[in-house]
Design goal:
The structure holds 2 protein chains of 2 kinds. Chain A is an alpha+beta fold. Chain A is built from 3 helices and 6 strands. In chain A, a hairpin with a 2-residue loop joins strand 5 and strand 6. In chain A, helix 2 crosses helix 3. Chain A is elongated. The termini of chain A are far apart. Chain B is of the alpha+beta class. Helix content of chain B is 32%, strand content 33%. Classes of the chains: A alpha+beta, B alpha+beta.
């Protein structure tokens, strides 16, 4: 009798586990007979490597170029991600980091006017002074636009939000075009 | 033992209540987590079909709703983005992100979708506003569920970029739309114009300052743009153009003209006015030195000294703030515009995470960033597209464009004169003159510059900026630069 009860309990537990498995995340992708067309599993084809020019701030208030070789996807959104990620990883020389805090890239969007929106994590403490604001902004804006010439402008977002300004100086409420006045001449 | 297995089991359970309850608890523990995640289901109906759509917390699984209306949805693993398509509409949404790309336009959302067992879950308002509305549907409560009905409940957004150009006695306002939308222009109450968009919510671009003397403000309210005109101004004409989609509004003085007494902002003076803007103020302290010295204090102290020197030399000087009070950045330039100032100088002190950084630098707007360049371009396209050219002849546009370029060129000269004096008079390392779109310089109709007088993050420079003698020398250098520029330009 006890053996039978355990058998029934085991069957019930197995059925519960089956139900749980069927409802767990990812269930949608296994649905059949629907009109949705989920993208097939990504094929991990590494992007070809390319040399990109990144601009890092110097103490002279200018942006100085560094050449980096990185995997650079052909797709524009992914290319912008690759460039900004490499920029945020920091300079290879004695130049200053692009962001004066450990900024994370939260996302990249490209709109119908070929403007890129780079969404960064915001500074943990409010930044002050135009120096930090200008260097952070134009190291990203100019690095992206120099390497993605099909783009017209870059707007920075912070923590998923548009901001008018970061330290009360620069107008960050719209996409910015390339600004060569901050790029140091060799 | 002649009983059936079921009866035998029931009999066993009846006899062993404790064991039965324990078994039930074990089974509930296995099943409950999944149930808690789903939070039940809700019925959605559309065109005679119905679907049970699982809930995920307070949100709804999105993909079954899309199936119901026949929308296609794909997921890009690489971009982490869902792409929804129906007819010629495309919406891109990303979990945890409060932005959606709706038909190529970036739209801010009030909340973010979340990853869920079914792929993606959204709030009911998100489903209605961000997903269904652009696809031409809306949600209606139906019993305990929802009915998806045709017609956007919340009109989809149309982005509007406004540019105005004053020509003689009239102003042409060009509203460039992100897509074609029917619009009607009517006179509202008082000096107000209303531009109503059919089934579209205008979202102002806001990147262009309104430099028109006749248009004081533009704001969006629902499906309408409210345009506040200067007293005595009214609607002369309006029409729509395509390629790109635009609404053209002609504004001017309409007879009979009500004549409100003009308000004198200042006593009439034949002496030229210079506006000095002490940066920051109030709760906005700006940069702070390790000694506790605040940027707002330095900028105000130097501004007062500079004003005294310039007034002594025969100029009328107005400060944008006289004490420790906050001022909106745009109000500061607006004051200079209203006063018809001949120069606008915004004073600041800088900061860097690297304490060795020192020196002064001067900025002015670049032509590419000066948003009037866009206004000029828009007006030029307007003319080329065959719009009525009675006010906007090509010559007018060229002259207007040249006037904008001249203001920037003169700003550059003012910046160079100031920077030169700072470098030589105070023996500072030359950090040069640069161009950038500073908010406080946007919209200035006179030579306008922003001066970073030194770095408060540099202990030596912070000590200098705290010293009254150094502040006086700094003010003298600035005055020399400003007066040198004004002498050469006159």
């Amino acid at each position: 009798m006890i053996r039978r009860v355990f058998l029934i309990a085991a069957v019930l537990v197995a059925l519960a586990a089956l139900a749980f498995w069927a409802l767990k995340p990812g269930g949608f992708h296994r649905q059949t007979g629907v009109s949705l067309t989920p993208t097939p599993a990504p094929t991990p084809t590494p992007a070809p490597e390319a040399r990109i020019m990144l601009l890092f701030p110097g103490t002279d208030g200018m942006l100085h170029p560094e050449l980096h070789t990185v995997p650079l996807p052909a797709e524009l959104n992914q290319r912008v991600r690759a460039i900004v990620s490499q920029l945020l990883a920091g300079p290879a020389t004695q130049l200053l980091p692009a962001a004066p805090y450990p900024a994370q890239l939260l996302g990249v969007f490209i709109d119908g006017r070929n403007n890129a929106y780079v969404d960064l994590s915001g500074p943990p403490e409010p930044l002050t002074g135009s120096f930090s604001e200008l260097m952070l902004t134009y190291s990203i804006v100019d690095s992206v636009l120099l390497n993605c010439q099909e783009l017209n402008g870059v707007q920075l977002l912070f923590d998923d939000h548009e901001v008018q300004t970061l330290t009360g100086h620069l107008d960050l409420s719209r996409p910015l075009p390339l600004n060569k006045s901050f790029i140091a001449t060799p | 033992m002649g009983s059936t297995p079921t009866a035998s089991t029931m009999s066993f359970f009846m006899r062993n209540t404790t064991r039965f309850l324990s078994l039930c608890i074990i089974l509930l523990c296995a099943v409950l987590p999944a149930q808690a995640q789903l939070g039940g289901a809700i019925t959605f109906s559309f065109a005679g079909h119905a679907a049970q759509v699982p809930r995920f917390g307070s949100r709804i699984e999105l993909l079954p709703v899309l199936q119901l209306i026949g929308a296609q949805a794909g997921y890009s693993q690489a971009a982490g983005t869902y792409v929804i398509q129906l007819a010629d509409h495309q919406i891109q949404i990303t979990p945890q992100v409060k932005f959606a790309l709706v038909d190529g336009e970036l739209e801010k959302t009030n909340d973010a979708p979340v990853a869920s067992p079914g792929g993606l879950a959204v709030s009911e308002s998100y489903l209605d506003r961000v997903v269904l509305s652009p696809l031409g549907y809306h949600l209606e409560q139906s019993g305990t569920g929802y009915r998806i009905a045709p017609g956007a409940m919340v009109a989809p957004v149309v982005n509007v970029r406004a540019a105005a150009a004053d020509f003689g006695s009239t102003t042409t306002l060009v509203l460039t739309l992100s897509r074609h939308v029917e619009a009607t222009v009517t006179s509202g109450t008082g000096h107000q114009l209303l531009v109503h968009f059919t089934n579209a919510r205008p979202q102002l671009d806001g990147s262009l300052p309104m430099r028109s003397r006749r248009i004081e403000a533009i704001q969006a309210a629902g499906q309408t743009l409210k345009i506040e005109l200067a007293p005595g101004q009214g609607l002369l004409a309006s029409h729509q153009l395509t390629g790109p989609a635009r609404v053209i509004v002609e504004v001017g003085r309409r007879p009979p003209t009500p004549t409100p007494a003009p308000v004198a902002l200042t006593k009439p003076s034949h002496r030229p006015t210079i506006v000095i803007d002490p940066g920051h103020g109030g709760t906005d302290s700006g940069a702070v030195a390790s000694s506790g010295l605040e940027e707002k204090t330095v900028s105000l102290a130097v501004a007062k000294r500079l004003a005294a020197i310039l007034e002594h030399d025969g100029y009328v000087v107005r400060l944008t703030r006289n004490g420790d009070e906050g001022r909106a950045l745009t109000d500061r330039t607006a004051l200079a515009n209203r006063l018809g100032a001949i120069a606008f100088v915004s004073l600041h002190a800088n900061a860097s995470t690297v304490s060795s950084v020192r020196g002064a630098e001067t900025y002015y707007m670049s032509l590419h960033d000066a948003t009037d360049a866009h206004a000029a371009e828009t007006a030029r396209k307007e003319n080329a597209a065959g719009a009525p050219a009675r006010h906007g002849s090509e010559l007018d546009l060229i002259l207007w464009d040249m006037a904008q370029a001249r203001v920037l060129n003169r700003s550059a000269l003012l910046a160079l004169d100031i920077q030169r004096q700072l470098n030589s008079f105070l023996n500072l390392p030359d950090r040069g003159v640069k161009q950038a779109p500073f908010v406080v310089l946007t919209g200035a109709t006179m030579p306008a510059v922003l001066v970073e007088m030194g770095f408060l993050s540099n202990p030596a420079e912070a000590a200098q900026l705290a010293d009254p003698g150094y502040r006086q020398r700094l003010a003298q250098a600035l005055a020399r630069g400003i007066e040198g520029f004004l002498r050469s330009s006159s």
